[in-house]
Amino acid sequence: MPSSEALTDDYVAQLLAKDAKDRTIKYSSYGLQAILPKRPTTNAPKPNTRFLKNIIKETDSFEASMGRDCEKLTEGLRRMIGGTKMAVPSRDVG
User: Fold this and answer.
1) DSSP category for residue 3
2) I want to staple 26 with a disulfide (CB 3.0 to 4.6 A). Which of 33, 34, 55, 80 is the partner?
3) Residue 94 above 50 pLDDT?
4) What is the rounded CA–CA span in Å between residue 25 and residue 87?
5) Helix, strand, or coil (residue 86)
6) Which residues, at least 6 apart from 91, have a Cβ–Cβ distance to it below 8 Å?
7) Which is nearest to 72 in space by CA: 94, 88, 58, 61?
8) What is the mean pLDDT of residues 15-20?
9) pTM over cut 0.85
10) 11, 19 Cβ separation under 8 angstroms
11) Per residue in 62-80, is it b (16+ CB within 10 Å) or e — as a string?
């Protein structure tokens, strides 16, 4: 197909059907290894653990500050209402 022509639905459907047929033949011959990408696992990049630990630490810090802000707002609302007790949902999951 020349690059100047637009892709038609029929042409794309034919390409997908041909690809599916080719993959089915490969799968029946070689199993799952025929479909999986061929990447060497020995040279896999190592995770940046320092970055990941910092992200977790920052997230925990942010969530703790949000909890403190929520508690301050709850106390302020209690004072505005006149000291009546407000039900605060428990954070315990179990």
Assistant:
1) T
2) 34
3) no
4) 63
5) coil
6) 67
7) 88
8) 94
9) no
10) no
11) eeeeeeeeeeeeeeeeeee
